[in-house]
Amino acid sequence: MSIGPKSVPSGVRETYGEAIDAELDGVDPEAPLWVFGDQLGPAVHQLPQHADREVVLVESSAVLRRRRYHRQKLHLLLSGMRHLDDQLGDRSTYHRTTSYREALEKVGRPVVVHEPTSWAAKDFVDGLREEGLVAAVLPTTTFARPKTEFAAWAGEDRSFTMENFYRNQRKRFDVLMEGESPVGGKWNLDHDNREEPPKRETLGVKDPWWPTEDGIDDEVRRDLDAMDLPTVGQDGPRRFAVTPDEARRALKRFVDHRLDPFGPYEDAVLAKDPTMAHSLLSVPLNLGVLHPFDAVHAAEEAYHDGTARLNSVEGFVRQILGWREYIWHLFWHFGRDYHRSNELDAKRPLPDFWTELDGDAVTAACLGHTMNELRDRGWVHHIPRLMILGNHALQRGYRPDQLTEWFTTSFVDGFAWVMPTNVVGMSQHADGGRLATKPYASGGAYLNRMTDHCGRCAFDPKVRVGEKACPFTAGYWQFVHRHQNLLRGNQRTARAVATMDRLKDLDAVLEQEQGRTEF
What we know:
This is Cryptochrome/photolyase family protein. By secondary structure, the protein is mainly α.
């Protein structure tokens, strides 16, 4: 199987070429190309429009110090940038400066740049363009669909739900299609991908591809130690691909050995198997060294070759071509103030065990284990994020803006465009239902069914009141009571309110949870 071109991914030129040419009309063909730390792949610097350009990479100490990032996240970012500099050789110039502006002034002539992936960076680049330091701002080519296409599609008289967007994506890029119909006759096979965890400690699949650190990684680690930056989490071995070659290897391992079992257990959690059959491709995707076209086409090929079942391939395609792209476009579509949404009026600040990633301070096995995994790895898969961390935060009413910042800085794959819609919309329902039709809140019964944490926990998922009362079970009813008017009017949550009304110990639950300090 041939996975991933070493040059521009198939489809990028066709999708973006005309818009790039229009922006570059009249611009010096040798103007340097400034590449951000999440634009490190061939879909940016190997475009034919950049063939004669010097590549400018900037390591800004001010940016590194701006937030309290996970130590491993900083390592991945710097490793990726320095590996690209090494790969490009004489073509690139690497600047270690206090600020981006300082580096661009050293370049000494206007640069071209692809539009960055946050509102703040976009505003900064637009300002530099007005000053003459930037000659052209080009479309972001590290996603499948241009923003202009999404804006036109979403602006038509239709519901731009995830499901509608996903079907449109499949048609637009002819993925898992038979003419105008989906392969297998169904668009969504999610019902086949909800298996409970097996009754063993691990899923038993082949390990993910793990990178081998090199001299560049050694240098990054020494430099980070010397910088003494304000970080969270533990340093550790690099676990994610940061170059196109590494990303191809990680993708191949996933497709060859892990994609087939991925689907059925994608929503399950095993404490001693943190990666299960997940791809671990979010970091290379978000650094730009793996293009979504490459990931999706490789998975589709595995289905047609008969090496991966359809529900697993469709589930993976839905994550990459559906959800990930949808989140990217909604980040821009919802606007720069979306992250401030707080429709549920959640006001509690994040507690210390969150900000310090201190799972040892937590009694609940699921919450403590997840926090420690994040401390040690900078990563957990989507169910611990949504149904353990997000569920707990939703029940306890933590501020969604603080939570968004925490997810962005504490996860190695967290970027400014990734987390607002995932956290504010999907996890915390703080946008009033613009993204999700109901809050993702659940009690301990769900966690007992989909994880293996509860059997070793001091709390009991079936108990609401007393010493063994599960904070997720009791917290769920506190959440339902607090927002009963909203939930009663939603057909997907009205039953929960009706059930709450029948609880004979509701007053005791509310009093207990109001004073709970131990989770």
